[in-house]
From TrEMBL:
Pfam families: A_deaminase. The keyword GTP-binding does not apply. This is Adenosine deaminase. It comes from Acidimangrovimonas pyrenivorans. It comes from the Bacteria. GO terms for molecular function: hydrolase activity.
Length: 320
């Protein structure tokens, strides 16, 4: 099952940057980010909030559309080598041009061109989900939503929110999600990673999202789990991320098995693979060992992911 074709719905483009790639750019641009690596050269952080600091420091060396084009090429080559055939990536105008619409269009153009080359070479398809950063606040999120609305279409297909789930409440971002929905974008939100079940309920009610990024802490309220199953809400589960960040002690105690058994639609993604020493193959391999899942389970998970992908029907038809 490790080599099955895979669909990944939850990947942060900057978070997928290998440390050597970031070091190379830092050297070219004479930026000192030595403090974010350990002695082996891996990203080094102590907890989720320190991870966000390291993530933003690494991202600070990505300064031009060309940097993002190079990043996209590197990330998609690695994803294709892990049998990923379709991927949705979070992109943020906060990092790509500072929420300036003209600059954002240039970044997007460069990223799309790199993605098109990867598709021609390796047969991997990429689509973008525009993402404000929650701890940057609702005002910046509005500017991000405007960028998203202006570029919504066949390639920018979704709108989401990442960052510190403890910062503010989902309803603070309702205006931005309403604007994105009206522009035709499909919606997801990080919730139930660092916030409990209430955080998932709030995101569903106040942002009206159809997918939840992570959502794993819904497991602390079984009535909510049943509601998720009933409503067909799709969870973008990133087990290796949750374990690396200390949410669960090991793979066997990760709740993805319980969600699956209770009929919740689960999908599997890596989130920020080099930060968590994971890959899509590694996720499948660890899950198959922890839960004794066979090919059939992973095929069903990919069918769920294909059904929940935000791309148009013609693209989806190629995935099923
Ligand atoms: N941004 C990158 N990775 C993230 C995560 N796991 N949770 C929230 N925001 C993120
Ligand atoms: Zn994420």
């Amino acid at each position: 099952m490790t080599h099955l074709p895979k669909i990944e719905l939850h990947l942060h483009l900057e978070g997928a940057a290998p440390p050597a790639f970031i070091r190379g750019l830092a050297k070219e641009k004479h930026v000192d980010i030595s403090g974010i690596f350990d002695e082996r050269g891996d990203y080094s952080y102590t907890d989720f909030w320190d991870f966000l600091r390291v993530y933003e420091a690494a991202t600070s060396v990505l300064q031009t559309p060309e940097d993002y084009a190079r990043l996209t090429a590197a990330v998609l080559a690695e994803s294709a080598a892990n049998d990923v055939i379709y991927c949705e990536t979070f992109l943020s105008p906060d990092f790509c041009g500072g929420r300036d619409l003209g600059a954002w269009r240039e970044y997007l153009h460069a990223i799309r061109e790199a993605a098109d080359r990867a598709e021609a070479q390796d047969g991997i398809t990429l689509r973008g989900i525009v993402t404000p950063i929650r701890h940057f606040g609702p005002d910046k999120a509005r500017e991000v939503a405007l960028c998203a609305a202006e570029t919504a279409g066949d390639w920018i297909v979704g709108f989401g929110i990442g960052g510190d789930e403890k910062a503010g409440k989902p309803k603070d971002f309702a205006w931005s999600f309403d604007m994105a929905r009206e522009a035709g974008l499909r919606l997801t939100a990080h919730a139930g990673e660092w916030g409990g079940p209430e955080s998932v309920r709030d995101a569903l009610r106040d942002l009206r999202v159809e997918r939840i990024g992570h959502g794993v802490r819904a497991i602390e309220d079984l009535a909510l789990v049943d509601e998720l199953a009933e409503a067909g809400v799709v969870l973008e589960v990133c087990p290796g991320s949750n374990i690396a960040l200390g949410l669960y002690p090991d793979w066997r105690r990760h709740p993805i098995g319980q969600f699956h058994d209770r009929g919740v639609k689960v999908t599997v993604s890596t989130d920020d693979p080099p930060f968590f020493h994971t890959t899509m193959r590694n996720e499948y391999d660890r899950l198959s060992k922890a839960f004794d899942w066979d090919d059939g389970v992973f095929r069903a998970i990919n069918a769920t992911a294909a059904g929940a992908a935000f791309c148009d029907e013609a693209t989806r038809a190629r995935l099923q």
